Amino acid sequence: MRTTIVASSVLKLTIDYEQAKKLPIAGKGVMSDVVSVGGHLWRIQCYPRGYHGHGDDKGEYLSIFLAHMSSTTTSAKAILDVFLMDKDGKPSVKDEIRFLHTFKCSQVRQSSGWPQFVKWTTPEKDYLAEGHITIVCAIMVTDDSPIPVPPSDIGTHLGSLLDCADGTDVTFIIDGETFHAHRALLAARSPVFRAELFGSMAEATMPCITLHEIAPATFKVMLRFMYNDALPGEEELGDSSIEMFENLLAAADRYALDRLKLICAQKLWDKVSVDTVSTVLACAETNNCPELKNKCIDFFVVEENFKEAMFTDSYALLVLKFPSVIA
């Protein structure tokens, strides 16, 4: 996940060292001005002689915290870089600390930082300039939430083309029923339709094509799938859904719709039982679907399944039509 810095700012806090030495251990803090960064208010809180919330603090360490001062409805996530300025007024990387913290929106004046940032004797030795020490905190407010992208709705839009028949340029007639479609879409989805509708075959110049060996109900479902890449719910297919999936698998094989073919194979496999396995295996063998065929054979290998399935009428038909399958 990519983290984006949406806003940044630098806070500077200068402390009179001699005055700070007079502060009580784990006592009063020194606060910077409040600044707005990324829609949130922030300030540095420094406790030169340690922080009272740190149980075993003996005043040996300088404590530094960044406080989130806003009462907002959103959380703030910030990267913090804290360092001291050296005697020459340059940032010191020796004691620099960086960390990432999430400030919850429900907690006003929530702070996070370092109770033991540096030893109290360290600033006098390395960072004291004209009697002052300077603390710098760079705040980078981040956002790692992705830009919300809605799911694809191309299927819905293409399906609407089929519903309203706008721009259709080819018609199919099956057992007296008429189906309007778009040549370019069918050709894009099926190499078989591409050859028929844009190749040298007679159908390429025919505005109306009569189809045989496919039922109107099967063609209707297949055509809808070619537009929106989805099948209707099984409740729409009715009680004969197994037969419909077998017919759809055959149609998908005929028109080289590989995804539809495998979807139907899975649907049929989900419904396999000792009563249906022979019919489903015959369908798989007839329509060149090795994935479904192998599943059915594995089902037959289980002795209990075979003993029951062999007494069904569909098994007898399977043996007659494809004797090599069960050899």
TrEMBL record:
MATH domain ranges (all copies): 10-139
Name the UniProt record assigns to this protein: BTB domain-containing protein
Domain BTB positions: 168-235
GO biological process: protein ubiquitination
Similarity comment: family membership: Belongs to the Tdpoz family.
Pathway: Protein modification; protein ubiquitination
Pfam families: BACK_BPM_SPOP, BTB, MATH_2
Database matches in InterPro entries: BACK_BPM_SPOP, BPM1-6, BTB/POZ_dom, MATH/TRAF_dom, SKP1/BTB/POZ_sf, TRAF-like
